[in-house]
Amino acid sequence: MSATSSRSGLVSFEDLRLVYEHVSIAAPSENRGYICTKTGRTYVVSDFFDGDEVAPEDVETSKQYISVPHRYDLDLGRNLVFTFVDEHLPGEWEAVRDIFRRKGAYSRFKHLLQSRGMLDKWYAFEESAVEKALREWAQESGIEFSES
User: Fold this and answer.
1) Contact 57, 69 (CB under 8 A)
2) How far does the chain reach from its first CA to its final CA, in angstroms?
3) Are residues 61 and 19 in the same domain?
4) pLDDT digits (tens, 9 = 90+) for 125-140
5) Is there a single domain that holds both residue 96 and residue 65?
6) Can you tell me the distance from the alpha carbon of 2 to that of 75, in angstroms, rounded to the nearest whole number?
């Protein structure tokens, strides 16, 4: 998968977000995403699928490409869940802790949220946290965004 390129190394936030989602949908290192610092073009490299466009051969080794982080690299996994629980469902902390002791935790967590009428609130909370973390990461990495 390759997102659109931009002039002067600028990348759209939406392109970054799409690459981040591809990287984060799989286990760490199964899907890898990159941003070209010269063009702003984004690439996804996967062990399981071929993207729309072939990434340059040196995408994983050249300093011209910045690796897009996985959600765990940005602390957007389990810790985010417990931050949400602390703020919005403090009485469910033990139940959520028990949920995350077994496989399939996220689907059971979302079922719990749905039963409490909190699923939409979770999605909004998660979306906000992801955007904030990606923008902070981009700033620290020297990535600038285009207007689009």
Assistant:
1) no
2) 19
3) yes
4) 999 999 999 999 999 9
5) no
6) 25
Residue 118 predicted with pLDDT over 80 = yes
Beta sheet of 42-46, edge-to-edge order: 42-46, 31-36, 65-68
Is the pTM here over 0.70, yes or no?
Answer: yes
* Cα angle 36-134-123, degrees, rounded to a multiple of 5: 135
Beta strand spans in the chain (E): 31-36, 42-46, 65-68
Q: Where are the alpha helices (DSSP H) in 51-118?
A: 78-88, 93-99, 105-115
Average pLDDT, the chain: 89
Query: Is the model's pLDDT at 40 over the cut of 50?
Result: yes
**Would you tell me how many other CB atoms lie within 10 Å of the CB of residue 98?**
11
Domains contained in the chain, number: 2
| DSSP symbol at 7 | G
Q: How far is CA 75 from the centre of its chain?
A: 10
pLDDT reported for residue 6 = 42
pLDDT at 138: 95
> 40 and 83: one domain?
no
Is the same domain home to 113 and 137?
A: no
